[in-house]
Structures are given as C-alpha cells and as structure tokens.
C-alpha cells in the first residue's frame, strides 16, 4: 500500500486564495497574534508528516486486530497507544483548544484540515482524539470555572480522553425516552445510574482516564440534563482517586471501524457533576454534538481523499487493456487510467473531494467568526451559517465519502474486494459516518425543517445572496457555468419557499423531502465552490495547477452539477407518493 | 433475525399476468409438457421452503466462520455441506438442465425466481450451485457427446461442482494476456499448466469432485482455448481415479462472501479436455459467462429483496419519534415507518426490487425463447434481446442491489452497523456483484459499444418498438406517466444514434459515457415494467394488491424515473471533460 500524502497544495490554496484566511485571521484579535499563513503551512506540513509516518501505518493492522475486552478494560490494537501518546504530546488533541487552559488556540479553519488528514490516515484512531476535543468544547462552553480548570488541561493534553454518552437501547434518534437517572448528593454532585449503548471510545487503554458526558434525568422531571462523569474520580490536585462506578458492559462487533471501541457503558451510582443548567442537557450536549457532526463529515472527507489517492495510484500502475482509439504510447497494454470509465470515477471522487474540502474550510471559517469575530453582526451571521452548514457538512460529506470509497474500490476491480489492498476497509470504516451523530436523514430534517424553513429562509437567503455576489465577481470562469449555478441558487430559494408555505398543511412534507433538498443544496454549493476555486486558481503561480482546476471545474459543471436539478425536482414532487401507502402494504 | 419469506404473490403475478408465461410455455414443445403455471407455483413454494428452512439459517454463521484451508482442501462453514446435499438431492442444481442428461428441464423464466430466492437466503452458499449450473451449460453447448454424457449428469445432480478459471494476476478484464499453457498429449487430452486467481468455488468440501473450465493457450498461438480439467480424474465408469495436478494455492480474505471459497488455483500438468474448437475458448466460455452474468445480477436482486424485508420488518417494529403532524394512533412514540424519510428509503428499495424482478423474468423468458422457440425469427430476436439484456441485468441489478442494502442498513440506524443484525453482511456480500464476472463498467461498455451501437441499434429499436406497443395498450395507468416513459424511450434511441454517429471521431466516447447510458436505459426499462405491472395488477383478484401496485407505480414515476433523464443528459455532455486532463494531473 502506498503511503498517505496530504494534499498540501490544495489545502494551502483554499486557505490563502479561496477563503482568504490571512484576512479573516488578521481581523480577529484572538487569532491575529497566534497564526498567520506561514504558521498554518508549517502546522499542515507537520500534520502531514505525523499522519503519514505514524497514524497511517497503524490503520490496516487496527482493522485486522480490532479492539478487545480484557478484564473489564478495552485493549486497542497494537501501536495505537504509542501513536496516541505521540499525537497527544504534539498538542494535536488541543490544537483548537483555549490557550489559557493548555490548548494551542489555533483556528478551526486550520483544524478541519488537520482533522481531514488524520481521518484519511485512519478513521478508527482519529475518533479518540475527536471525541476528546468535542468533550472539551462542551465543557469549555457550559462547565463551571472549577470544572474547566480541572478537566480541560488534561483533555487538551490528551492525558485524559472524552466520550459522549447519549444513546440507550430504547432511545436513539429520539432522546426523550432515556432512562438514565441522576440523583443529587449533598455535596453538589449527582449519582448517575443507567446504561448507555454505542459509546465510541467509552473505554480504552490509550489514556489513564475517560471523561464521560452523560445525558440523564433528574428525579421527577422529563427534562434531560448533562453530567460529567469520570471513569476514575479525580482528586483536588488532579491525581486520580478511586474507581467511579463506570464499567464496560460489552463491546460491539461492527462492520468496520474495528480499532475504535464502541461500548455498552454501565453507570452504577457513579459520581457526576452537572454541566450547564438542569434540564438543559440537550442544549449543552449539542455543543459537543455539532462539533462531532462536522468532525464526522470530515471523516467522510478524509475517506474520500484517501480513496482518491489509492485509486489514482492504482489506475496509474495497473496495466490492463488498451486505450480506445489506440494506446497513447503505442503499447500493447496501457495503465487503466487511459479508460474513460476509470477517469470518470476518479474525476467524480476528486471533484467532490476538493469541493468537500472547501465546504469543510468554509464551515471552519464560520465557526471561527462565530467565536472570535469582534463585530457582533459578523458574529451573529456566522453563527447562523454554522447552524445551516453543520447538518450539510455532516450528511453531504459523509454520503460523498461512502460514494468515493465505493467508486475507488470499483477502480481496483477484483483486487478491491480483497482485504489486503485496504480499499474495502475504507468502505466499511466510513459507512458509519452516515449513521452516527444523528443519521443523515435526521441531518436533512434538521436542515430543511429547522435551519431553512424554521427561520423563514433568513440564513439561506443570506448565504445565497453572498454566493450570488461572489459568483458575479468571478471573471475567469465561463459565464454559462456561472448562469447555471446562479439559476440553481435561485431555485433553491424558490423550492424552499414552497416547502415553507406548505409545511403546515402537509406535515410530512419536510420529513419526506428533506434528503433530496439537502442533496440539491450540497451539489449547488459545490458548484459555487468550484467556480470560486477555478477562478482563484487562474492566478496560481503554477500554470499546471491552474489548468488542472479549470479542467476539474469543467468536469464538475458538465457531469455533476445537474444532480442538483434532479434532487430539486424530487422535492417539487412532494410527499404524496411517499405517504399514501398503508403501513400494512409495506 | 426474522426468517426469509419469498415474495410468492409477486413472483406468480409476474409469471402469469405480466409476462404471460403460460402462453410462452404452451407455444414451445420442449416446455409445453413439462411445465404449466401450477407446476411452476408448486416449484416456487418448495423453493421458498428450502430457502427459508435450510439456506437462510446458515447465512449468518457462514459469514462469521468463513472458509478455511486445511491440508490442501477448503473447508466450508458448518452446515454448508449438509444443506448443499439436500439442495442437490432436491434437483435444484439441475433445475433448468437438459432432462435427457438428468436435468429437470425447467424454463429459465422460472429458474431466475428460484435463483433470486436462494441469493436472498444466502449470497455465499448460492454461488456454488450457480457456478455448477453455468459450467454445465457451457459443457452442454460446446462439449463433445462423450464429455456431455460423462459430466453433465454428475453436475446436474450436484454430486460434482463446477468452476470457471479465467483470471490470472496480469490478466483480469483483459484476458489476452493469460499465460496458462495447454500442451497436447498423444491420447487427445492436454496437459494444463498455470496459475489462476479469484476462482469462486475453486475448491471446497461440498462435492467429491470439482470440474474446472480453464482458459489456456495452445503452443505457438495467441488464441485462447477452453479446457475441462477435473480436480480428480474420472474413470470411464464415472468412478473417481487419481488426483489431477490441480491444487489450491491459497484462499483470499475478502470484504464479504466469506462462506464462498475464492481460490488461487494451480494447474501442474493437469489433464484437460478441449471444449469447443481450438482458439475459440472465449466464445465457449462466454456461454458460461453470460449465464453467470445474469446470475450475478440476480445476486443483487436477491440482496435487494432480503434487504427490503429486513428493513421493512425493522421499520414496523422499531419505536422512535412521533409522526410529523401527530401520531396516527395518538401514541407518544410510533414505529419509524411513520417517518417520510424511512418510507422514501423503503419505497425506493421496493420499487427497484420489483422492477428488477421483472427484468430478471423478462431476460429469463428471452433465454427460453432463444433456446426453445420453434419459429426461427422469434428465436433469433430473443437471442438479440438476450445479448442486449445480459449486461444490463448484470450491472443494473447488482448496482441497485448495493444501493438497496445500503439504504436498508440506513433504516436500521446504529443497529445496522452491528454485525449481529445481519444487514451489514448484505452490504459486504453483494458489493462483489458489481465487480466480478466483468466489472459493471465493462458491462456498460459491452452494452453501449457492442450491443447497442455495435449492431446499429437494431436490437434496441426492436425492444423500444415492442415497449411502445405495450405501453400504448395499457388502459389502466395514467396517460401522463405513459407519455413520460414513451418520451424517454425515444430519447434513448436518439442519444444512442448520436453516440453511434460520433464513435469513430470520438474513440473514447463509448467508454466514457457507457455507464450513464446503461443507467438511463435501466431506469427507463424499469418505467416500462412499472407501467406493465400497474396495468396488469388492476385486474388482480386482491384489491389491496392492485392498490399497492398502483401506489408503488406512483412512487416510481414521481421519484425515480427522472434519474433516466439525468443520466441521458450526461451522455449528451460527451467525453471531453473526462478525457482532456493530463494523466500527470490525476
């Protein structure tokens, strides 16, 4: 298997030329001193090195070996612990964490690129750090000063890890029905009792403590509250105390992601501490959840990039058949890259991956603006964008991640079905990204129901208006392409208006049409990003880079943009044919 | 896990009402005496019982246990051997075989339905019998009378099994480069030497002998010939003789299909017998290959049906959330079948599966006509249809099979990623169907290049004209839907004409656009079949059956038919954006 190499030129191009990170950073005092484009480039170089030399090499064996439960502790695959230690010591877990509490204070716009590399290198390994960073974010936003001081430095440093404990057997997408109880103690803590399932990183041997954020109900309430529950109790001086009634019931045997521990966690009067206000646990958990939703989209993006590299390398090496119309080198057999169908698959993966990276960086930029911008209006608008873009990033990036892995596997032919080539692992590993942290159906309903129609299209109109302005400013792309994307943006508004008008008299409309609407939005937004990239690339110092982006843009405009039209037409078809059939006829 | 239940009502409806099997059979002397609709229904009932009670129960364990290589023999998972014996003794391997040599002489139109059930019950197990039936077909078509008498009764009875040995490490899609040699002996036999990879059922413990059909080259030729090479030599009296220089090099570790042995087979001066003429081996092998291509399409179809059943059952049982607009039963939580997005997924799987079954039965009918029809014109036309439909059945059914399995897994949410629920196994098992027996890209190129434009659209025009006549005769479906499908049929011809006109000056056009053309054809043909089914169902004795088919047709017409338009538009966009990029820029 070839080593992983991060697409550093593409990453830097997006930061510098497409989304003007230097300007964004210079305008935010919290960022202006800590990061500039050269620092960012150095960090990306270092992340590339770590992903190539440390993380990617443990990927295949982790899949073969998997995690195992031994004497009540989950043991991770060979090499995970050593690599995790180095990863944590390098400060990568706390890359975007609060510098006053031990984080590195880097912008999310940069963090998403590092996350992408890590997921490209190994889906399963990267989750441990991602959940830790997400838990830290929620604690930072909603914890008391005491809790923050006690836990955040240890999470940012990677000495302890984080987990998100929500799902119970009877309460998955519908969290109203959780049964885990929290009983107050006299000292201000709570005793947590209940059982949680599907807990990623719920237990493992990478860190000495695991900090659980647990959803539970206070006595005599139907509301849900959030509690911090350490696996091992923490003394005032941060040394570890006694065990805390937290145990692993079992680990799941899964389709993939075998190096990631998915645990049934049992809490038996475990001591926990309230995070945020009583009965407001879902709001607090959503701080972590939204972080993880973007992260999981990036899991799909990282998979796409890894899949592209593997398939492109294979297509250049594998000799089979002759080019239609004769071999370009007059050989009797050619690399399969000469075949139109192989190119079609590679170009599909590549154009979706590069636009996906743009979506990821753009979302990261909005997160930074929402957190650090000085101007209240800028901040508020960015927060609306984050709301709009989070479900899209989660669903569209993870859906395209599976598509990419499957298409790359197809490029490998029969060899793609064999475990040792590693491409089938990508398919199995990334499949979960469409499911966990809220299924992609639920993301779409959140998007169309809450984020688009729920605020009467305000955020959507802003985003569309901004894209229209941007597109009109591009002078180095075809007018016909610009017109097509502009027309789709207009249609996105029209169709959403129609849904908004009809949603009360057709209560099933949003649920039934949300996935198509999200897909239409995704393919259109990728069209916006391709125009932006193709336009910006024409000034690139490397003429081949400019040519390549122009040709990739041509492919996207010719071959993929029209998917947006198909999906919009489906929303317009409404919910009748979906809802009318009697349940007994299914 | 719920038991598998064959969709018997749907199957009988297709045979009797949609494709008028009784008429087809009564007009063919070879069929008229052996089968009528009641016999067919009895056979389907029996097949359903065997699939439910014998084959499906070994599916999960076969995946967990897999095959293993022990002392040069492949050992299949527990239960495989006992079930295979009963399956073979029931005559199922030879269901469509020549009755003069021990087959049951049943029509393929019926055989495809039995195949579907078996693949629904267990993908991996069913391959052993499928390859045996395919090998028998090739021997029947191209073997000498002596070979036929010696081998076919043992293959039809399932006492021996068959394998297809084509691929070598350097020769996959491009078989010109095979290196396996065949040296003639004085007694008319040949010594075969070489190594083959990816040999499904190349060795196993289910039968006492394995009959390999091996592609090899005669001395001083570049042509390819076909040889029958038994694992163990066969004496004149059909008793087994000595070992024959055929050995298993290793078995592959795969993404799925773990109960199916995928072998590296080594031939070391193994005795073989020429099948067909020297240097005409590919033509002979294509008899088996075409059989397997349809079978592999049916693997995808069987997967779709199994996926639908599992997901529909789950959606009725799993309680989560409340219906948009309020619970229909005023419950606080509803089965997830109330949610539009879940229904959308189930209806997508179901409408594609039912139309896929129609494609499978229609292709089976054409195979029967091509083989048994009295009228030479009818026979020749059916043979053209078989040529046209085989790559479509293989690719479109297997592509939709993966889509179905993935969508069904999505319905299961987090539980779909866990091995014990079994739905993830379907995804892993069916993934290979898009790759083996010629990748789906190669099917599409065969379809558009050879079958459509290669004969100047003759067969396509015939098929379209027939569908136009059929559609115009339907009186119980919407005229608007008829018009949409008719327009698509017309566009299929127009677009293919365009490709045909440009294929010489744009040599990469077919390769680059074939997959989109095949998809456009598939979705349009499914539209034809849905109109046919909805029209025929209105006379059904069960009014709920009629209502259900009308509602499924409504869904297909509203939500899926437009995919044909998208794919046609892609063919019209041509190959420029696919071919222009320099290979170094990938």
TrEMBL record, chains A, B:
Coiled-coil blocks: none
Ranges for domain Acyl-CoA dehydrogenase/oxidase N-terminal: 41-159
Principal EC category: oxidoreductase
Pfam family, one: Acyl-CoA_dh_1
Domain Acyl-CoA dehydrogenase/oxidase C-terminal: 279-444
Oxidoreductase recorded as keyword: yes
Keywords per UniProt: FAD, Flavoprotein, Oxidoreductase
Catalytic reaction annotation: 3-(methylsulfanyl)propanoyl-CoA + oxidized [electron-transfer flavoprotein] + H(+) = 3-(methylsulfanyl)acryloyl-CoA + reduced [electron-transfer flavoprotein]
Keyword match Oxidoreductase: yes
The protein's Enzyme Commission number: 1.3.99.41
Swiss-Prot/TrEMBL cofactor(s): FAD
Family note: Belongs to the acyl-CoA dehydrogenase family.
Function: Involved in the assimilation of dimethylsulphoniopropionate (DMSP), an important compound in the fixation of carbon in marine phytoplankton, by mediating the conversion of 3-(methylthio)propanoyl-CoA (MMPA-CoA) to 3-(methylthio)acryloyl-CoA (MTA-CoA).
Name of this protein: 3-methylmercaptopropionyl-CoA dehydrogenase
Organism: Shewanella pneumatophori
